[in-house]
Write a structure and sequence with these properties.
The chain has 25 helices and 25 strands. It has 654 residues and is of the alpha/beta class. The longest helix is centred in the middle third of the chain and has 19 residues.
Amino acid sequence: MVKRSYYSNDIQSFLNQDNYSIFGEITTNDQFSAEDLQKNTWNSEIEILKRELSQFLDGHIIFEYTIPRIGNRVDNIVIYKGIIFLLEFKVGEKKYPSYAIEQVTDYAFDLSCFHKESHNRLLVPILISTKAHSVKQEIRILKDNVLETICCNEYEIAKYITEVSLKFIQDEIIPDDWINSLYMPTPTIIEAAQALYLGHNVEDISRNDASAKNLNQTTKAINKIIDYSKAHNRKSICFITGVPGAGKTLAGLNIAVERQKIAEDEHAVFLSGNGPLVDVLQEALARDDAKRNNISRKEASRKVKEFIQIIHHFRDDAISVDTPPVEKVAIFDEAQRAWDEQNLTDFMKKKKHIEDFNMSEPEFLISILNRHNDWATIICLIGGGQEINKGESAGIYGWFDSLRNNYPNWDIYVSDKITDDEYSKGHNFAEMTKNMNVNIIEDLHLAVSLRSFRSENVSNFVKALLDVDIDTAKRLYEQFNNDYPVFVTRNLHKAKLWVRSQAKGSQRYGLTASSGAKRLRKYGIWVQNKIEATNWFLNGKNDVRSSFHLEETATEFDIQGLELDWTIVCWDADLRFENGDFKHLKFVGTKWQNIKSADNILYLKNAYRVLLTRARQGFVIFVPTGDETDTTAKPEYYDGIYRYLKSVGIKELE
């Protein structure tokens, strides 16, 4: 078992232990074989902390405490008088870099949110730039149980630890209980992909408390199916279902990584039709890999693309050949969004100039893996209510239709929730699977939203809100609003101030709106100006193209499958509320037109479902006041939306 830290001892024992012995223990527990620069840093930390803590009669000290979520390590932790001090050293540094302040602040909030023994404990981040000048600062709470980061030099550590412990009287902490505390993280999909790619286990980066579905069980179930298929030369297809944010994409990425560990010749690949998601994940992994391994971005990018690919490239590559692909295991993200026969056939004829093509996307994708003579496994990740584009309304029916008509010998594995209307879309499951080899496995359903780690009821609230189930929406809102804030405002400036004030450390925030929200342009929200997803999701606060600047707006197409910590959801007149129900419209030319197609009504509803489930920690809904002089943005177009949101109990942003 890997230790949580490289060194841990009570302060008195640390003071009495010789430096060489302490250093030896740290380096022995270092699984990454640190370079000389890091070893010199440890020697400096030992000397400085021995001097600074020399007058402390009790307390506990830890070197290199690992945060399992993404493998980050806190330089030092001092537990003293019931307070957790997080020390981040910058040895030789003469200033207090903003990135370092953000780094140690992130550590504190990470522990506050996900480390069970830290939930109600005072956490004090301290940045120690050893050669910097003293700065005058006030000791104050930043948010909840986390103090604002203290910046000091190497001679002020004891002073600030003493000052904080006198100002805040806390109950004592049993060090071993804190060190070995249950860790319940819910990383962003970007962080999760980075951690898996680096070799961390899914148990390290996903919640495993009793209230959440253990993603590891789903991975085990899929591995068992793959191994059976491989051993018996069977072709199999699995459907993983789950609520929005339950970790379906994380499960898919984990399976791809796991299978590569088990057998490289399987060439497991994660495929998605979600362009922005693939672009962002590929770029995030490439940047991280290039930095950690000192290789070129081009080389890092090439490696990543073997692991994560856009589904259309995989599909197009198979059109011109009839040989089996190198992949034996293919994970298809958002499989319910696969195109039906009419739309894929039209696309192939118009864009690819292939006249004799007449298959749906599910049928064609199954046919590609079916080319293998021995075995193959397809894993379809299915989300309910996620169809947002033309040709996607068939949902999972298209997969079963293709299997029944063309591949009846394939083994089918589904969860017991596959019959829910969100997935079956009114089709009778028994009829869909008649005379087919269907196996029910409960672990193929992920029932709890992990995206909104502060509340597992958010996805249910959004569903009730869009279904006009006022009583349910009101009840759910009252349950989570203290921990997961949701507000409404008619002032965009206030909304921007609020998300900026809520986000701490590197927590990300941004503007979102539906792709049909064309009349929000008068408020500076221009959805027709397409964002560059990699810049918007990955770049820092100094880049005007990033989400932090609250200038460029992401639509449902940009943000589906991804998430931010805090969002502003901008609500336009395309989804109005009149006479007790929603009215669906699109803006064409110079005026609004009613949407009559059932499919297009569904896409618009799901667009707002996506937007309202992208925030991990909270969001504010901006509803314009309208303009009496503008016939395309009349106040009555928006007032009904505002009144409806207030009727379900959503509080006004003050």
